[in-house]
Amino acid sequence: MPDAHGAPVPLHLALLSPRLKRNLVVGSYYYPLKEQSDTVKTSMAAMTALQSSMTSLSLSSSSFLGQRFSPSLCPAQIKRWERKECKPNSLPVLQKMHVKLGDTVKIISGHEKGKIGEITKIFKHNSSVIVKDMNLKTKHVKSREEGEQGQIVKVEARIHSSNVMLYSKEQNVASRVGHKILEDGSRVRYLLKTGEIIDSTENWKRVIKDREKTEQVAAS
């Protein structure tokens, strides 16, 4: 039995409806019913396997994979100035700094330029320091308990270590820092202009005492 184009059509296809014939035709070739049935069986088996795997995962419309993509599900992006450069072992890279805790420094740049203060905290991962009562910023603190009012407080913001210079109280001069080894083998810092040794046992004892007092006040 010929088709519309005059080509012979197998008898088992001639008995089918025109709609089924179109579904069995790919291009200008007819696939036998046996091959078509094998393909359908393979497709049905694949669909059954997929449905069973999805059922085993117990996915629902309320689950993460069942929801549409939304920006709120993405992790918050870390700001550039909050990122920490890390080593291969995921530990932050600590920068070498010319100042230490308890040093008296003079600010040489910024709106606090020319002021003198003492370093109360250092951050080696981004080479910044906090100078006592310098570079104050306004912070709005929310109430944590019921009935407590919010506050507007002044906090000390960080200053990059390149914007401070060591200062000598005795001679009232700011100087760059140098390093030298004493006779006992200890390596100390000193001011290049005055020759004054900065690292001493007395300075460290004073810094430790001040830190203990601060911790006691905070605890009380």
Topology overview:
Elements: H1 11-14, H2 18-24, E1 25-26, E2 29-30, H3 33-56, E3 104-107, E4 116-123, E5 128-131, E6 136-141, E7 151-156, E8 159-160, E9 164-168, E10 173-175, E11 177-181, E12 187-191, H4 201-219
Antiparallel strand pairs: 1-2, 3-4, 3-9, 4-5, 5-8, 6-7, 9-10, 11-12
SSE pattern, N- to C-terminal: HHEEHEEEEEEEEEEH
Number of helices: 4
In angstroms, what separates the terminal alpha carbons?
Answer: 103 Å
Helix content: 10-25%
Largest sheet: 6 strands, antiparallel
Query: Structural class, from secondary structure content?
Result: alpha+beta
Q: What amount of the residues lies in strands?
A: 15-25%
CATH architecture of the domain at 98-219: Roll
The average pLDDT score comes to 75
Coarse morphology = elongated
The stretches of 5 or more residues where confidence is low (pLDDT under 50) are 25-36, 58-75
- CATH structural class of the domain at 98-219: Mainly Beta
Radius of gyration: 38 Å
What is the CATH topology assignment of the domain at 98-219? SH3 type barrels
Read across the widest sheet, the strand sequence of neighbours is: 8-5-4-3-9-10
What is the number of E strands? 12
GO molecular function: RNA binding; structural constituent of ribosome
Family: Belongs to the universal ribosomal protein uL24 family.
InterPro entries: KOW (IPR005824), Rib_uL2_dom2 (IPR014722), Ribosomal_uL24 (IPR003256), Ribosomal_uL24_C (IPR057264), Ribosomal_uL24_CS (IPR005825), Ribosomal_uL24_KOW (IPR041988), Translation_prot_SH3-like_sf (IPR008991)
Protein name: KOW domain-containing protein
